[in-house]
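Consider the tokenized backbone below.
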């Protein structure tokens, strides 16, 4: 009788778990609370919807959080990269070293300047730019290096910074996935020119938006002109600029999200630690290398048979992502432009990566279900 009761309890537990997960667990979910909603409503009622007081408030708060003198808000993360390169004077004929394995916007921003992205391979453990390979790609035309803090794990800032200093290169930090991440106790985005994205799936969001962080007042002046039609006053246009402004509606979201960012990150870290501890050992799980704070924008595992793995995730109703399926130079755009690369590790990793849910509002039951499904897979 006791064995029957135990079996029934086990069956009931599995049934409850199955019913509770009949809806898909998404790969990401924005964390929007009443504070954000109320602040946005205030903006809508005020009638001041374009760039205004709240954008300035958000810029100051974000600069203080990162630990820099200035922050310039823009319309999205790709724009942040584009304007950073423009402000640095990158032009046609220049080369900029970028990691071969990241979101395509990092390299596209170089193309926007009619410059050439040169692809460096990655470190297999962190999947961030490999300083040794980057060093081999430097030529007399190289003007800058863009390092990406991929998935929320800081790249080796010291090694890349030393490389830039030795060769008189400019450093841009693509921190689109690394809000609040730290390298040796210092926030990313404060070492070079930092570029952040506030897309809905990021660690904090403004729906759409971006931010550029720097301690260089001359660069800030250029950025503020570039984002607003080169206007130095009321209809006093002194250079060719763009409409890359952030709205007060976006800034209202950002102000409230920033207050919650550290809490969001701590939840992501705890969720990642749970998955690392409980997922099977025959998949490659993410690790933290060096004295860094990894904020787990994505929780990325590596598997040999990815198609079989994701088919079983789909069947179980668990969201996933493939960040990213190809090295950038393997994308049709870059093939057609004749911009090739030779990055063996980037190509290898791109065939194996799968992102699992790690967002802050995952429940204990959600995490347990993910573990149960993955550990029960046939691989």
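A designed sequence for it:
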């Amino acid at each position: 009788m006791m064995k029957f009761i135990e079996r029934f309890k086990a069956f009931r537990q599995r049934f409850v778990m199955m019913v509770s997960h009949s809806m898909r667990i998404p790969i990401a979910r924005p964390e929007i609370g009443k504070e954000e909603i109320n602040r946005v409503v205030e903006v809508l009622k005020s009638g001041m919807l374009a760039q205004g007081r709240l954008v300035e408030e958000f810029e100051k708060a974000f600069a203080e959080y990162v630990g820099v003198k200035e922050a310039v808000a823009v319309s999205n993360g790709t724009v942040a990269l584009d304007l950073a390169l423009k402000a640095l004077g990158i032009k046609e004929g220049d080369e900029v070293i970028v990691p071969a394995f990241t979101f395509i916007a990092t390299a596209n921003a170089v193309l926007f300047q009619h410059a050439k992205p040169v692809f460096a391979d990655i470190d297999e453990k962190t999947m961030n730019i490999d300083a040794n390979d980057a060093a081999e790609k430097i030529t007399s035309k190289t003007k800058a290096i863009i390092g990406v803090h991929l998935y929320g794990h800081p790249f080796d800032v010291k090694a890349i910074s030393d490389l830039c200093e030795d060769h008189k290169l400019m450093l841009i930090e693509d921190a689109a996935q690394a809000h609040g991440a730290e390298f040796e106790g210092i926030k990313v985005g404060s070492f070079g020119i930092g570029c952040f994205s506030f897309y809905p799936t990021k660690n904090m969001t403004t729906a759409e938006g971006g931010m550029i962080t720097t301690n260089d007042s001359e660069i800030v002046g250029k950025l503020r002109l570039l984002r607003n039609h080169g206007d130095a006053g009321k209809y006093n246009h002194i250079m060719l600029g763009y409409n890359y402004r952030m709205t007060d509606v976006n800034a209202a979201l950002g102000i409230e999200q920033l207050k919650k960012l550290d809490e969001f990150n701590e939840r992501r870290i705890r969720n990642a630690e749970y998955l690392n501890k409980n997922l099977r050992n025959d998949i490659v799980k993410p690790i933290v290398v060096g004295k860094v704070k990894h904020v787990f924008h994505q929780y990325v595992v590596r598997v040999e048979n990815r198609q079989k793995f994701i088919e079983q995730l789909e069947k179980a109703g668990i969201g996933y992502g493939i960040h990213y399926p190809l090295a950038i130079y393997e994308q049709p755009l870059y093939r057609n432009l004749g911009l090739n690369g030779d990055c063996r590790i980037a190509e290898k990793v791109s065939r194996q990566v799968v992102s699992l849910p790690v967002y802050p509002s995952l429940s204990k039951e959600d995490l347990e279900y993910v573990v149960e499904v993955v550990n029960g897979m046939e691989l």
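The chain has two domains: 16-25+261-375, 34-256.
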